[in-house]
Automatic annotation (TrEMBL):
It is found in: Cell inner membrane; Cell membrane; Cytoplasm. The gene is ftsY. It is a peripheral membrane protein. It catalyses: GTP + H2O = GDP + phosphate + H(+). It comes from Novosphingobium malaysiense. SUPFAM superfamilies: Domain of the SRP/SRP receptor G-proteins (SSF47364), P-loop containing nucleoside triphosphate hydrolases (SSF52540). GTP binds at residues 126-133, 208-212, 272-275. Residues 118-265 form the AAA+ ATPase domain. This is Signal recognition particle receptor FtsY. Part of the signal recognition particle protein translocation system, which is composed of SRP and FtsY. SRP is a ribonucleoprotein composed of Ffh and a 4.5S RNA molecule. The keyword Cell cycle applies.
Length: 322
């Protein structure tokens, strides 16, 4: 089922407290943690793990989508570990969780509204189907919770559905939107949106952009034009270029980071649909391989299911340690 469009469940959702969010994390990452613990099941050792056991663990981490770099790093950490008792699955997972936390801490950076003069212009990019439109709405809601005034801009003019979906979300959230005709010039929409946001005292302007990767040159040219237009209005804009990734794509999400870094100058990531996959380990792979800020994660379809994360808690969630 697509998560692009609004649903009554989305509309009715109310923000939960930290405990509810923790519960959602454990529920959302259950498939990922079960896959990881399943791959590591049966590995036991003495005070130190031998090379064969370490090889098995490294392979298990790679099969759990943590990626070869993170797997090698965790293997090295485990090789240094002297366990007080014989190494069992729990003891191994404690070390895995600690090392995952070390990987995630440097990249766990919420998207802060700090631009002056306002607005802070946030370009949101990602392939069609990644949950980009819904993520924009969730991000707007997150800013609203922090008492920021938000505006949306429908810069994906190549899909009438994208314009329509964003307009529905704007109405439901009670935020203004700037849009143009289908097939219109995205840079013109962005220009109008920045002027309107400036006039209205908006704090954060979130801009949807096209998600086409069939022609990288065309997309690069389009984004370059948007940047030139923004530069004439505010040399600092765009302040953020946020790539939305669908965790269910697993390692393919990493190739999207590579491509969009090249064509769009990505400054940070949001990873969605972590609740619907056993491939949540790709979050760790992205952090270790690229080191880009990961501003928020999505673990559901409700409007408040996108939030910044605590790296130490999330590491234990991924490792399946309550």
């Amino acid at each position: 089922m697509s998560t692009e469009g609004p649903t009554p469940e989305n509309e009715a959702a109310e923000p939960g407290d930290g405990g509810e969010w923790s519960d959602r994390l454990f529920g959302g990452f259950r498939k990922t943690s079960e896959r990881l613990t399943g791959n590591l099941a049966g590995i036991v050792g003495k005070a130190r793990l031998d090379d064969a056991q370490l090889d098995d663990i490294e392979d298990a981490l790679i099969m759990s989508d943590l990626g070869p770099r993170a797997a090698a790093r965790i293997r090295e950490r485990l090789a240094e570990e002297r366990f007080e008792r014989d190494a069992d699955e729990r003891a191994i997972m404690e070390v895995v969780a600690r090392e995952i936390a070390e990987i995630l801490r440097p990249v766990a950076k919420p998207l802060d509204v700090v631009a002056f003069p306002r607005p802070q212009v946030i370009l949101v990019i990602g392939v069609n189907g990644s949950g980009k439109t819904t993520t924009i709405a969730k991000l707007a809601h997150l800013f609203q919770e922090q008492d920021y005034a938000v505006m949306l801009a429908a810069g994906d003019t190549f899909r009438a559905a994208a314009i329509g979906q964003l307009a529905v979300w704007a109405e439901r959230l009670g935020v203004p939107i700037v849009k143009g005709p289908e097939g219109g010039d995205p840079a013109s929409v962005v220009f109008d949106a920045v002027k309107a946001a400036t006039d209205q005292g908006i704090d954060a302007l979130i801009v949807d952009t096209a998600g086409r990767l069939q022609n990288k040159r065309e997309l690069m040219d389009e984004l370059a034009k948007i940047r030139r237009v923004l530069g004439r209005l505010n040399p600092e804009a765009p302040h953020d270029v946020v790539l939305v990734l669908d965790a269910t794509n697993g390692q393919n999400a990493l190739s999207q980071i590579e491509i969009f870094k090249e064509v769009a100058g990505v400054s940070g990531l949001i990873m969605t649909k972590l609740d619907g996959t056993a491939r949540g380990g790709v979050l760790v792979a992205a952090a270790e391989q690229y080191g880009l800020p990961i501003h928020a994660i999505g673990v559901g379809e409700k409007i408040d299911d996108l939030r910044p994360f605590n790296p130490d808690l999330l590491a234990r969630v991924i490792a399946g340690i309550a």
